[in-house]
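Field reference: sequence -> structure
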Amino acid sequence: MNLLSIDTIAFTLLGYSMSYIELVGTVLYLWSVWLIARRNILTWPVGIVSVFLYMILFYQIQLYSDVIEQIYYLGASVYGWWLWRRSPKGEGKTIGMDFSPRRTLLLTVGLTLMLSLLTGWLIADIHNLLPRLFPVPASFPYLDALTTVMSFVAMWLMARKRTESWYYWIVVNIIGIGLYYAKDVKLISLLYVILLFLAFRGLSEWRRTQARSLLAAPATDAS
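Structure field:
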């Protein structure tokens, strides 16, 4: 029995056949999110296993942009694990969240769209460019490319403490819900519903923190 195949079914619920790889990958991903919320260093090895499983899953359902995205997440997870091992408590400084200047916002959005179109064009033809690696044409190449590029940008913005990163994640999650449902990986689609809720909650918390900082600023200046 090949546990890494989407055709190896763990159980069937309400007519939906759940593969082992989708089930375990999703459970580990949610666990890694729960761990990182608690600054637990185990978030990185758990996340790495989840990334490997999703990489294999997405390859089998021809979402090639998502395969590339998982490679990026793998590198980021390895780097995060190394960084947290240097500082075991994983505690960072208090973050001062804010939006980027308007000009930077427009430039970032424009660059995101341009890279998404370019990536989508490449992925749409990748089965002709690399037929041995990608024998089947990609599914939804432009939507898949858009979510991939937006995820890269969102992670970069979040590392720079930019509040607009949450808007990127919200759009990525909304598209992901429909995309994965259409590809019949419904557990991952449900996962994106949960991630969408968390993105709205994260945005709300960051905005409240910004508001409190603005209210505290005059008192600090007066003192």
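Note: The longest strand covers residues 9-13.
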